[in-house]
Structures are given as structure tokens and as C-alpha cells.
Amino acid sequence: MISQLPNLNGLKAFEATGRHLNFRAAAQELGVTQGAVAQQVRALEAGLGLMLFERHSKGLSFTSAGRSFHGRISEAFAVMRGAMEDLRPGSARVIISVPPSFAAKWLIPNLPDLSAAHPDIDLRVMATDKVSSFRSDGIDLAVRLGSPPFGASLQEHLLFSNDILAVAAPSLVKDRELPLSVSKLAALPRLHDDHDLWPLILRESDAGSGEGVRGMRFNQTALALDAAIAGQGIALSSGFLVNRDLESGRLVVVAKTHLDSSSALYLLHRKGVQRSSAVLRVVQWLRDMAERGSPLEPHP
């Protein structure tokens, strides 16, 4: 077993040589002699007990082990270069963790506004439903659906209340008077997501469970909304996710539900941590955009 990491110069020589498949070009890039690069690569191979390159009269080619190893080493050097870049004074990198549907339906469509207002900010988006750790995942901000408190170490800012709307393509309800009653909703194809809100909507109505009506199931709200836009059924969604589709006419509100829920969408960051100017500006931008984009009400 290899008990310690190889010499860094050997790894640098290997990484550069692998990109060029040429000792001379690698030497020119690294500012050393061709012989020095070849010697460092040979020493690396000897330490690993593996041949990384096949030597030919016209140049080099990877061995199978060398090709696999080069891919991993290239990734490692890219991570190190990124870490060094992040240490630059005035670095404007901001990492934010958000739910995938929020990323697809709200954040990404609004990012041109952020780029126009703050072109220097390097926003990196982690789209996940999993709980992210500010410390171990290295995130600066998180957007989550829930209710306070989120933890003694976290500060929250309300972005959107969680008003649930029933939405559909205009073609699906073109011959119906809106808003629809819950019983009439139950008679139409329903689109389900991982929040599984339809049973709660139908429970108190005379529609019962409505199990006889077909309905597709998706693991993300954004996918259910795309299916709704395609005219495949009625989807339930938080209002802030469908504003753009409502404004464009791709969707219409067919009913506003009356779920009692204390959950809402919050922006989270750690308390007692000095935040960069970039993070503070993203926080303010998110709060300003949320204030400007309140959910639309259904029209009778």
C-alpha cells in the first residue's frame, strides 16, 4: 500500500504531461527542462509501482491506469486552484443551497437580475433537498421550506409564505368557470409531487380521496409543473414557484386551497460569522426580489 502522498512536483509534472502527452510541452509550461519533467514522472511511476505512460518514438500515450489516475489528479489540481482563487482579497464567491424546484422555477429565471445588479458576484448554486451543513459543505446561504426555529446558530429571513395554488394549462380548463370547487378539482387529472398535498386538499371535501382519477407522480414540484404546462393535469404549487408561468399565460390559477400550514420559505445563514460584502449583497437581493414577487391570487 502507498503510505504517503507522492511528491507534489512529480504530480505537477504528470498532470501537465498528461494534458500535452509531450514532455517538452509540459516542460515549457512548468518552466523547467524536458529532462527534469521526464525524471519526475519516472520517479512518480517508480513510487507508485505502475507505468502511467507508454513511450513511443513519436510521443506518449496513457496506460489504462495512467488515464484513470490523470483524471483524478486533474480534478484535485482544479480544486486546489479554486481554493487559491477563493482566498483572493475581495473574492465575491457565494455558495447557496436551495431546493431543486426553487432553483428551476424561481432562482434561475431571476439570476439575470442578480448578474446585472452585481456582475462581480460569483454565485454557486447547490440544488438539493437534503439538509446542508454550513460548516462541512462550505455553504454561505441556504433557502429552505419550514418554520422557525431552524437552530440556535442560524438566522432566518422570511422570503415567501406558503400559499398553495392549484394550477393548470388554460387548455385543460378552457370550458370551465373558475375558480373550481374542490369537488370539481377532484374530477380532473391530478399531478402529484413529493409533498403529496392532494390527500390533504380532498380530505375535507365531499370528493373523498378521488382515488379513481388518474394522476402522474413526480419527485419534484418543478416536474409536476412542467407536466401541468403540457396540459397533463392540475398541479399544486407554492405561489412563488408559478408567478412567471402565470404572468406568461402558460398556467392559470384554477383554485386557491386552504391548507393550514405554518411552513414558509426562509433564507438562512449562520449567526456570529463575519459575512463578506458579496454574501450581504446576495441576502439583500433575495429579500428585495421576494418582496417584489408576492404570489398571485386566483381570479374568479
SSE blueprint and pairings:
Blueprint: H1 8-20, H2 23-30, H3 34-48, E1 53-56, E2 59-62, H4 64-86, E3 93-98, H5 100-117, E4 122-127, E5 141-146, E6 154-161, E7 164-168, H6 182-186, E8 190-191, H7 198-203, H8 221-229, E9 234-238, H9 239-248, E10 252-256, E11 264-270, H10 277-292
Parallel strand pairs: 3-4, 3-5, 8-9
Antiparallel strand pairs: 1-2, 5-11, 6-11, 7-9, 7-10
Helix pairs in contact: 1-2, 1-3, 1-4, 2-3, 5-9
Using brief descriptors, characterize the structure shown.
300 residues; alpha/beta; five-stranded mixed beta sheet; four-stranded mixed beta sheet; 10 helices; 11 strands; elongated
Q: Could you explain how this protein is built, in words?
A:
The chain is an alpha/beta fold and 300 residues long. It is 41% helix and 19% strand. It contains ten helices and eleven strands. The strands form three sheets. A five-stranded mixed β-sheet has the order 4-3-5-11-6. A four-stranded mixed β-sheet has the order 8-9-7-10. Strand 3 (93-98), helix 5 and strand 4 (122-127) form a beta-alpha-beta unit. Helix 1 crosses helix 2 (23-30) and helix 5 (100-117) packs across helix 9 (239-248). The longest helix is centred in the first third of the chain and has 23 residues, at 64-86. It is elongated. The termini are far apart. The relative contact order is 0.14. Residues 294-300 have low confidence and may be disordered.
